[in-house]
Amino acid sequence: MSSTRRRPPAATGCFLFWPSPRASSPSLCCRSSSSVSRPALSSRDNSPKGTPAVTARESTIAHLEIAAAAANDKGAEDLVALDVSGPLPFVDIFLIATGRSERNVVAVASEIEDKLNESGVKTLRREGRSEGRWILLDFGDLVVHVFHEEERLYYSLERLWKDCPVVPISVATPAQAE
């Protein structure tokens, strides 16, 4: 009896679809870049020499801070924000977070969605909530990926988008809150 590794289901209809582990590159889905026009972005060079500057819009960075705080409130781990506005003309930032269990993944995603909706940001698309292993939330210029630990290691989005600058996130830790 051969043992096969259980592969997480691919999130079809999302921005990132990796059809198989042997595929050389992901396919982009949902919105066509040709139908979206973006104004010119001003480059803010707050990064050290040799690293790309963050070019995401200020409004998207504000939404990122709300999403990161909500994720942190529900116990998300390893928050990473990537400025993907260079290679993807229809998205500014990917926020990647990890939940410890399926319930935690769903709770983190729900809290992020609730807080952004309360601040007036509309959810355009939601994928993966029923499985609770990889939930994708599309808010237009901000796309949030909430992974279970195993799926985050398997899909490794940070490695895929390694050429994109990391956007600093200021989230208060419990020690700072006291």
TrEMBL record:
Compositional bias per record (Low complexity), positions renumbered to this chain: 23-44
Cited InterPro entries: Iojap/RsfS/C7orf30, NT_sf
A molecular-function term among this protein's GO annotations: ribosomal large subunit binding
Record has Repressor as a keyword: yes
The UniProt record lists the keyword S-adenosyl-L-methionine: no
One matching Pfam family: RsfS
One annotated Gene Ontology cellular component of this protein: cytoplasm
Region annotated Disordered, chain positions: 23-56
GO term, biological process aspect, one: cytosolic ribosome assembly
UniProt-annotated location(s): Cytoplasm
Keyword entries, A-Z: Cytoplasm, Repressor, Translation regulation
Family of the protein in this entry: Belongs to the Iojap/RsfS family.
UniProt subunit comment: Interacts with ribosomal protein uL14 (rplN).
Function: Functions as a ribosomal silencing factor. Interacts with ribosomal protein uL14 (rplN), blocking formation of intersubunit bridge B8. Prevents association of the 30S and 50S ribosomal subunits and the formation of functional ribosomes, thus repressing translation.
Protein name (Swiss-Prot/TrEMBL): Ribosomal silencing factor RsfS
Species this chain originates from: Mycetocola manganoxydans
